[in-house]
């Protein structure tokens, strides 16, 4: 590990190392495959045939560019004042399949074809990345297997059905803590045995090199578009950009467009769960420490022995005990400010956006909305000339059941479906 | 001199293939795991591996995962592994390695982990998710305390990587017999002999083969081209189903000791 001199230049940081983070903490068996992916990616991104095809899919299949929508009623409500910062949403929720995840998946599926692979595997938490991977596999005529924590398959039964409709096999992972991190473990076990014909479509900017750099590259269209759109809409750069952080792919995508504009403050909002003091959270940067998991050195929620601590969040997509290594680097370099947002704060912003703007956000993205609201309140009326872009990374259709439960909107008889209450006689 | 290399060479001097047995530390409890490890040595193991139970064991199949998950669920602490290593090295002459995913070492600090392992009488460690590219801290720590460090070489490792692995390893190179995770298989993969040949031509002095090795026939087959055979899952299943006595019986069979009894 080397100490890099402080530099104002953060865009396009190449792997495998981001300061002290990143690398390849992986079984030797996978190193050849990682080298092959890295080489193929380097060639592909310089090959117009590849980049043209990627851009064509982004336009004709995903529906890019995604809109930039100003939300004045939300901005006023969230700040508790008409005299507050302007808030714009980068509408990744309008992409085909409903989130930013499709950008990375289409890129990696194209790459898998170049690699001569016929089978895609993926992990998924809430199901967004699994659905996106199943979609790309269907589009390109590839076999697809998605690993999903057993708990998550039950909580997200509708997304399991979506993946199955798209032709994917969904494998519930019941061991360990039966959540996203265990789904990644199982996908890695699959990949070790099948690497000859299989590409592992890792869904975030984590994992071993080249995944953090490559996944960022497929998502940087978010930031590139947002920069152009905000300049067109306001004639200037925003004062702040806010995104939610699980593994951190949507955040890297939008931050990328502004990393080298020091006047633009960047904020990453981690899942604070039930509150940091309860231990039930997923705030890896705020409370974690350097460690290695799933192929990368980064901030990691771990106990004194180095065992991974189970994370908690109302949003399955942020329920991960580590974070992409570039975020760890950007935190230490002071370029991005990372803060936790609790379940309660997030659900308040979720409800406010629904009611004031007619947009149901993913609960993941609602963390970024809540963070922007916090900023706006902190700025007060002094912020009335300021502009915030929030990356609305996904739509909330998948979260309606969770939200209905949170806001107590379910009919009373549904209570009997709640598992293991043990109250009934 | 490497303790592990000495144990492998001693087996070779007796005309045997070194038999290396794995058991998860603390499974099913601390004392039983010590008893099982001693039974393993007394029934022919030249080297033993004590696995450190870990929350995210990506190279392990269902049998070992199940065992280590149970150990973690009862509140296992890493300290226990040093106690187990100490108990086994005091009771036997075997070279005792620990098998650990790297974050366990990283959290404690490579130098502290190495010091404590050396103090417990351990021979070194196998690190399945650590490649030499990332191992600067661990190599420095194991050098300081004279410990073995066993890196893995795979069927997909290039000649350049095989050379790097051979030169970074101390004790032996772990030849991964197949592309997959731990678990008993009916046959030893064809790839195993090629992995051993590649590692040897890249400069490895001793290469032992693991993954999918579960019978005496496998051990003998591997002995025809490698310096040692590594058995894990089959022993863990024996411990699960029949305790240390079952480990003793299986170890005697795997080592060939029951064919050629000797007194300890």
UniProtKB/TrEMBL annotation, chain A:
PROSITE patterns membership: TRP_SYNTHASE_BETA
PTM annotation (N6-(pyridoxal phosphate)lysine): residues: 101
GO cellular component: cytoplasm
UniProt pathway annotation: Amino-acid biosynthesis; L-tryptophan biosynthesis; L-tryptophan from chorismate: step 5/5
SUPFAM superfamilies named among the record's database cross-references: Tryptophan synthase beta subunit-like PLP-dependent enzymes
EC numbers, comma separated: 4.2.1.20
Enzyme class: lyase
Cofactors (names): pyridoxal 5'-phosphate
Catalytic activity: (1S,2R)-1-C-(indol-3-yl)glycerol 3-phosphate + L-serine = D-glyceraldehyde 3-phosphate + L-tryptophan + H2O
Keywords for this protein: Amino-acid biosynthesis, Aromatic amino acid biosynthesis, Lyase, Pyridoxal phosphate, Tryptophan biosynthesis
Lyase is among the record's keywords: yes
Lineage top rank: taxon: Bacteria
Domain annotation Tryptophan synthase beta chain-like PALP: ranges: 70-390
Gene3D superfamilies linked: 3.40.50.1100
MF (Gene Ontology): tryptophan synthase activity
Family statement: Belongs to the TrpB family.
HAMAP family linked: Trp_synth_beta
Role description: The beta subunit is responsible for the synthesis of L-tryptophan from indole and L-serine.
Subunit description: Tetramer of two alpha and two beta chains.
Name under which the protein is recorded: Tryptophan synthase beta chain
